[in-house]
Amino acid sequence: MCNPNNPTSSRTANTALKWLVDNLPANTILLVDEAYVHFAEPTEIQSAITYVKDNCNVVVTRTFSKIYGMAGARVGFACAKPELIRQMMPFKNNVIPILGLRAAMAALRDRSDLVPSRRATVAHIRGQLCDWLREKNIGYITPFGNFIMIDVGRDARAFGRDMLRRGVAVGRLFPPLHKMLRVTIGTEREMTRFRQTFWEVYSG
Fold it and tell me: Using one digit for the tens of pLDDT, what is the confidence trace for 37-92?
């Protein structure tokens, strides 16, 4: 499971995650992908690493591609109890590139400033978009990542093509969510352009 979810940007409630871990069958391992977890406030989403520390059958994966901005660096990690790590080792087929490793180490040294700053920036711009969507009475899934799913009420693929013709690219279609448009949160300037173009298509 992804928490926050991809592609919806929704969250799994802490109570639901706890129930899932508490009720895992003995022969089942839960993999929680937390690629986008840093975009949510720590009070909103509890990391499943808590359950790793409790020696549960849980594996947590994270990447430096998202809030750390290292897409393409191929850097990430998994957390699990030693027994599960040993079981995964035979499937390891690569190592972290040295440049990616050094970049990750530098990012981790700055994480106490970098993560809260970037989280706050994204949350502010994301909040502006959500406010605008509510004003326009346009439905969306409450987002906890750096993207949002907007209900355009029609074929989202065609909607996206109309936006692209106006110079704004949005995310691909995610069946069966055929009427939901996946939009990454950009800069304030980019999102201003997005809102203008979106409204041209939506109201036209």
Answer: 999 998 999 999 999 999 999 999 999 999 999 998 889 999 999 999 999 999 88
- Any idea what the Cα angle at residue 186 is, between residues 46 and 65, rounded to 5°? 55
Q: Are strands 76-79 and 58-63 parallel, antiparallel or unpaired?
A: antiparallel
Assess if residue 7 is contained within a domain.
Answer: no
Segment 90-99, tens digit of pLDDT: 988 777 888 9
Tens of pLDDT along 184-204?
Answer: 999 999 999 999 999 999 998
171 neighbors 157 (Cβ within 8 angstroms): no
CA torsion sign for 103, 53, 78, 174 is: negative
pTM assigned to the model: 0.91
Q: What range does the domain containing 56 cover?
A: 14-109
Angle at 80 between CA 75 and CA 84, to 5 degrees: 110
User: In terms of domains, do 26 and 96 share one?
Assistant: yes
